[in-house]
Amino acid sequence: MRESKSNKRGNVVSFTQDGSFFYKKGVEAYQNDELEQSIDYIKRAIEIEPDEPVFLCQLGIIYGDLRYYEEANECLEKVVSELDESMAECYYFMANNYAHLLKFDVAKVRVQKYLELDPEGEFAPDAESLLEIFLDPGRDKLLDGMMLPYRKPADIIVDHINRGKFELAEEDAKEHLGENPTDWDIYAYLAESLMYQNRLEEAKKILQDLLIKEEPNFLAQCLMAKLFVMEGNPDKEIWRNNLKNLRPMKDWHCYYLAKALFFVGEYSRAYKWYKKLYQASDFYKTPPYFHQMAIAAWKNGNKKKAKELWEKTRTIDQENEQISNEYLKVLSSAGDGVIPEDRWFIYSVPTLVE
Fold first, then answer.
1. What is the pLDDT of residue 1?
2. Backbone dihedral region of 78: left (phi > 0), alpha (psi from -120 to 50 degrees) or beta?
3. CA 38 to chain CA centroid, nearest Å
4. Where are the TPR repeats (predicted)?
5. First and final CA of the chain: distance in angstroms?
6. Which domains does the chain have, with CATH numbers?
7. How many CB atoms lie within 10 A of CB 32?
8. Are 222 and 259 in contact, with CB atoms under 8 Å apart?
9. Residue range 264-277: average pLDDT?
10. 10 Å Cβ neighbour count for 239?
11. Tens of pLDDT, residues 44-84
């Protein structure tokens, strides 16, 4: 006998994805170091339950890890001012963020508030140490070098590559893989460092291994297209066209796609991806990123934007301001129609050919 529609409907189990569901997914992503995905989940949890202070506090913590200190403190300030003023840990996190922003007086007030609310709390020993530094007359010297943000091994390796330190990138990648042999993206960075050292066969083998896995590595797809162009492979146009059709969701993948498109000569497409990332608040923008975008802007005839980007780079990377100063000189002396050389994509002082 056939069941009636009403009986069938009664057998359906309703599943509601509440804020806690997305929060847990976000915490899992955070613990797996997938910070961008973690942000997406936590934001979804907040949309569903906007009055839950724990969700907003966690978002602030993640922003802090990504070095978006101002955005982090906006979240944390909202927690204690609008949702739950008793969440003492928010004051501790804010103190750290303000210290990174070199706003030490504000940081001191926040860390004192934390110790007032939770003198025996989880972060109390660190908070007391931080307060001692803030109260020390020679605090600037004590803080010198202490407020540098934590960088993951991948960040350091890619930074080496972007600055032209290819042998150092290779060394760090191999050392990391010795302890973390399943960190697949690091293999891609290793291959990239080898490519720049013209060790194409070694790089190709690594990339081929990454591409035959159940889930082909996105970075390997981008780098293989670059490698085929470098070696003049007959299939280079196929891989170049493949790059054009990629639509990555993750910001980091967008960044590597932009770099690959630039390398294979797709300057307009590369610049579009750089602009997309420029507008993305969750993507951490390093001095090499701004430099690369400046080169891409100039390649596309936007010298005004290139000038703006190098001036910004000079401000945020004063230790290496000579790099931006040199490019600003070259830019100002370049006539109309003059475009930068591809080799200037590396964040280093430009080598000029007379």
1. 33
2. alpha
3. 13
4. 19-52
5. 90
6. 51-143 (1.25.40.10), 151-257 (1.25.40.10), 285-354 (no CATH)
7. 10
8. yes
9. 95
10. 19
11. 999 999 999 999 999 999 988 877 788 899 999 999 999 99
